[in-house]
Amino acid sequence: MVKVRGFISAFMSAVSNCRLYSINHESVVGLIEKVFFILNEMFHISGTVEIMIIDSDLVVNNNPLKDTSLHEKNFIKLLKRKGISHINFIKGFPRSELKQLIAYLAASKQEIKSLPHIKVGIVDVYLGEFQMERGQDTGNSLSKFTAEQIEQARMEYDRLSPFKKLRLAGFEEIVMHFVLSLKKEFDILKILEPSKSYVGYDYTHASNVSVLTILQAQALGIPEDLQRDIGLAALFHDVGKLLLPRDLLQKQNTHEAKEREIMELHPLYGAQYLAKIDGLTHLAPIVAFEHHLRYDGRGHPKMRVNNIKQHLCSQMIAIADSFDNLRKTAPSKKSLNVKEILVTMKTSDPGSLNPFLLDNFIRSIHLSLSR
């Protein structure tokens, strides 16, 4: 595995330098030459070079790479963010194709393409038994996917405790699917699951907030890599509720004043919990802490430092949270249609939401429904 580790180290250095300079910079050219040399040595040893990501593990020529270094973890993360599950180098590949591959991976928006001698596999987004490839129709399969993923998320969250770290495997694939689905499916309501009133932790709501936040990010032109970080942060925005007493979380009647004080601490609990998870986007604990703050500076928890303004990502998630909460139905509550929800968000509570981002959200919803 020495050659494999050397290849990944040189490859990631080439991608990083390409981002800083250009593909034709002398430092990048030198690193590409090093990668080319190591790959040819690997061909000499095994006759093939095939790289796969299975869940969060790196497998090279059918051999799992154990005790991954920082370079190797970043390599896995880079491929997953680009929607790649395997790369197959065919013997005799030219330097020019290796150069193209590195340029593709270094670019923030460019879609990855297979080359004649370097076959790049688009990831099958999966969890459990369901699979969906990029390019597959998102109609009936999407609702099946969403229902299964919410159930899988519920099972994963049910294992959570203050003494265990939340396992990221699977959640990144869910968010990746949402990003790809929104690029293909224009009607946002086909992607959202019906939202109902609930007691306890609402996994459907968490998924809907993730989708609605990614919709905003795409409308703002935010790069796809960052869309996935934002979507993952949105998926975990309410995770602090899982650290509250279950009887309090599942209480159907109105909470007493003391109980409300405890409930309002869930953003703090969520932020503290998420901050300890290695490999999780730094946006997640920020959003967990801030999602009940308001654009005008009010809200909870009431422990802001130096009057720092709510993060832009938190503002986007607050809008998604508000929209999906207004979609919830209950026997004692008249359900609102989309137009009524948007009017309510625009007029009912000035200062609650960022007006620029709210206008962007409203335009995005109208555009989605009109196509």
Given the helix and strand composition, which structural class is it? alpha+beta
Shape: elongated
Biggest sheet overview: 5 strands, antiparallel
Number of helices: 16
Order of helices and strands: HHEEEHEHEEEHHHHHHHHHHHH
Strand arrangement in the largest pleated sheet: 3-2-1-4-5
Q: Please give the share of residues in helix.
A: 40-55%
Mean pLDDT: 80
The CATH topology of the largest domain turns out to be Hypothetical protein af1432
Report on this structure.
The longest helix is centred in the first third of the chain and has 21 residues, at 26-46. The chain folds into two domains: 2-122, no CATH class; 127-370, Hypothetical protein af1432. It has 16 helices and seven strands. It is an alpha+beta fold. The strands form two sheets. It has a five-stranded antiparallel sheet with strand order 3-2-1-4-5. It has a two-stranded antiparallel ribbon with strand order 6-7.
Descriptive keywords:
two-stranded antiparallel ribbon, alpha+beta, elongated, Hypothetical protein af1432, 16 helices, 7 strands, 5-stranded antiparallel β-sheet, 371 residues, single chain
Offer a concise description of the structure.
Helix content is 54%, strand content 8%.
Sequence-ordered SSE layout with sheet pairings:
Elements: H1 2-20, H2 26-46, E1 49-54, E2 57-60, E3 63-64, H3 70-81, E4 84-89, H4 95-106, E5 118-122, E6 124-127, E7 130-133, H5 140-158, H6 171-184, H7 188-191, H8 203-219, H9 224-235, H10 246-249, H11 257-263, H12 266-274, H13 283-290, H14 312-327, H15 338-347, H16 355-370
Antiparallel strand pairs: 1-2, 1-4, 2-3, 4-5, 6-7
Helix pairs in contact: 1-2, 1-3, 1-4, 2-4, 6-8, 6-9, 8-9, 8-14, 9-13, 12-13, 13-14, 14-15
